[in-house]
Amino acid sequence: MRKLLLVWLCVLLAGCAGMAGRDPLNVTLAGLESLPGQGMEVRMAVKLRVQNPNDTAVDFDGVAVSLELRGMDFASGVSDARGQVPRFGETVLTVPVTVSALAIARQVLSLAGGANPKVEFVARGKLADGSLGGARFESKGAFELPAGMAGAAPRQ
Fold first, then answer.
1. Model pLDDT for residues 58-105, shown as the tens digit of each residue
2. Tens digits of per-residue pLDDT, 120-152?
3. Close Cβ partners of 4 (under 8 Å, ≥ 6 residues apart)
4. Distance from CA of residue 129 to its chain's centroid?
């Protein structure tokens, strides 16, 4: 039993050593499309552009993503998509996400309570690959709301 444990530990360490020196994947939001929802929820297809800056391909078997708007949880989703991001290449993945009515209400109240037209977002997730955790990613950004959408009407 002790020998089996030692062999397993050596295999595990060798696998971790093989991951050393790998640059993180670059994941950005490439788009959003509306999907049919149910009841009081909104469904969207989030498109993620995944770029691999490494000289070896990255295989994946499942994707999870969560979106945060203005510092508040907004949407989350998973996909059993399977594929590969080629070496020094990119691919676009589509992940269906769900937005609850409560998350929408929090955003509306946040926008109505202040005049800040800037909306910051964070997308976090992982590409599962069957190993210890897969490839995790985080993408941040911001955009300005059109005049009059944030808080009170613009001053003349």
1. 899 999 999 998 889 999 999 999 999 999 999 999 999 999 988 988
2. 889 999 999 866 668 888 988 887 776 655 554
3. none
4. 16
CA dist., res. 119 & res. 83, Å (int)? 32
Structure tokens that stand for 10 in this block: 């050596």
- For 152, the 3-state DSSP assignment is coil
pTM flag (> 0.70): yes
| Cβ-contact 26, 53 below 8 angstroms | yes
Cβ atoms 123, 48 nearer than 8 A: yes
From the list 142, 143, 139, 118, the residue with the least C-alpha distance to 65 is 139
Count other C-beta atoms under 10 Å from residue 18's C-beta. 11
Do 118 and 76 meet the contact criterion of CB atoms below 8 Å apart? no
CA triplet 22, 25, 27: central angle to 5 degrees? 175
Phi-psi region of 15 (alpha: psi -120 to 50; beta: other; left: phi over 0): alpha
Distance of alpha carbon 68 from alpha carbon 71, whole angstroms? 6
